[in-house]
Amino acid sequence: MNELQDTPICIDLPGLIRLQADARALRLPGAQQVRTRQSGLQASPRRGRGMAFAEVRQYQPGDDIRSIDWRVTARRQTPHTKLYEEERERPVLLICDFNRTLFFGSQGAYKQVRCAQLAALIAWLGLWAGDQIGGIVFSERGIVVVRPARRKKSVLRLLDALAQFQHGPDTLQTPAAPAADPPTPITLDGALHEARRVAHTGSRIFVISDFMMVSEETSGLLGALARHNSVTALRVVDPLEQALPGHGRFAVAGPDGPVWFNGSDRRFQKAFAAKVRDHEATIERCFRTARVTAFPVVTGDDPAQSLRGILGPRGRIG
């Protein structure tokens, strides 16, 4: 992705729109374009004469004789019928974290850039699959909610919010609050609360965050969403957050200015490693308790390649 090298700190709306090319490359051979407004590419529990083959079973009274599998019938000497899965659209909700811990990156791009790219790629894939696309974009500067809809206009509204939330609070203009009113800070827990109000039962939900600010309430909120929806956590991670360089002095931006540290200080290294272990254990426990599948996305990796692990058959969002 050339634009990633040009703008590692932020990615603008045209850059997010251009990610359509990367999304097309993710679609597996045989992925089908939806041409009607009624049908999507998510499997329904109902079995009928749809597009996707499900299984062959023994013929039962009432089965459509046009679905008889004559080869299996001849081999087993009893009538067998092909069953198909009817395909229906399903809402896709993207919960995108742009709080201050994501404005950081030591390799590839800032975490908030990767968050925007992941959301854009999933949005384009879902739109082409015939699904309803919506999102919740949030930070300490406010929140924007785009309700799921099967329109390109809705995707562009979401991408515009993703682009705007990458800038400072003085330049952010959102419908979350009038310009004269101070924005209400929104944490990950606050966004998950909002998602419970917005998400329809059976939605496909992606929570894209670094999960640096998980609380005791986070696992319960994720679990409540996962009981009635399919929830995936995409955790954006920078390598420097996992392990410090072994030598040299470095500066990291902080709320009160740059913070310097010495990589050769063994006590500091040991304390940092312990902090990382504790945080990793907290996050793992959060996902395990909520029964949510989590995928790491490293800032130094191509986000399109990172998404390949969550794609389903025929290029569908899993």
How would you characterize the overall build of this protein?
By secondary structure, the chain is an alpha/beta fold. The protein folds into two domains: 257 residues, von Willebrand factor, type A domain (Rossmann fold); 47 residues, no CATH class. The protein has eleven helices and eleven strands. The relative contact order is 0.15.
- Enumerate the strands of the largest sheet in spatial order, edge to edge or round the barrel: 6-5-4-7-8-11
Helical residue percent band: 25-40%
CATH class of the largest domain: Alpha Beta
Please report the total strand number as a whole number. Answer: 11
What's this, in brief?
The chain is of the alpha/beta class and 318 residues long. The protein is built from eleven helices and eleven strands.
Annotate the secondary structure layout:
Elements: H1 2-6, H2 13-18, H3 20-26, E1 42-48, E2 52-58, H4 70-76, E3 80-88, E4 92-97, H5 111-128, E5 133-139, E6 142-149, H6 152-164, H7 188-198, E7 204-209, H8 218-226, E8 230-237, H9 239-242, E9 249-254, E10 257-262, H10 266-290, E11 293-298, H11 303-307
Parallel strand pairs: 4-5, 4-7, 7-8, 8-11
Antiparallel strand pairs: 1-3, 2-3, 5-6, 9-10
Helix pairs in contact: 3-5, 5-6, 7-8, 8-10
